[in-house]
Amino acid sequence: MIRLRRYVPIVAGAAVAVLLHCVLAATSSTYYMTQLTMSAYYALVVVGLCLLMGYAGQVSLGHAGFFAIGGYTAAVLTVRLAVSPWLAFLTALLLAALAAGLIGLPVIRLKGHYLAMATLGFGLIVYRIVLGTPLFGQADGIYNVPPMHLIGGLEVDDREELRIQNYYIAWVVVSVAMVLAVNLVRSRVGRSLLAIHQSEEAAESLGVNTYRSKLSVFVLSAVFAAAGGALLTYYHGSIGPGEATVMKSVRYVAIVAVGGMANLWGALAMGILLNFLSLRGVFGTYDDMVFGATLIAIMIFAPSGLLRLAPLQAAASSLYRRWHGRGPA
To answer: Which residue blocks in the chain are alpha helix, DSSP H?
Structure first.
């Protein structure tokens, strides 16, 4: 049975999106909506990776590769072969799922840093392929990718007159992804993943097929990443090899770590915030260094995530008690 209270954060997120739009429009800062829209598509990767890392306990350093598979598949099919953007989008998701399945069949049996190194190798392979193959535009990438047309005349396109429209399209996509993710972690599958994270041997003793569960969530997280890559490619009209670099994968891992390994809402919030700051050029030429240092600091001082630090957790508990009528008014 679906519990409506589960979706209160989604409604709150929608309200924040509307409020933020009103503030930006009132201050004539609609240009920021471009960065927020792009941040939303990057956040899809973070949500999928949160499922893999926080609930299945598997670390991947290759999700930039899946993001690039989604983006480059959409770009190549639409630009080189004149395929419909919708068909190209679905093909991108299927190709990412197939690649994750083929990669996951052998490597998902690995644990700890061995799995991380294996997925790192996959990411490096994807990067070298897109950088060195003329079909993918090499260092220049692929440009002039046509927009994706949606129902009701909507388009995934970054033209100035469509900026507000695409801002809400991105938030709707993220909301759908969060609904799927929240329902997954609250289901029997999600409980099985948490059991695997706590103790794989204990989960197996309870009848959980740990191999199949880990492989399934690995494929699902890859599909999330590919969807973000394809949609951002349609929105931006281009994609380059920079989206497949190892540091992009490190960035996604760092964002999940900051938000909390098993905290979908924290991962989403940090994904939107940190990607937005990066796109705004707040970190300048030290962008990669900031995310690398952030990952190190979180692992040392707040391994459960920044949002789970004692002061923030106490504040969250207080709000929770008030919401459920068990605290002071």
So the answer is: 8-26, 32-50, 63-75, 85-107, 113-132, 163-185, 188-198, 200-205, 210-236, 246-259, 264-279, 287-301, 310-323
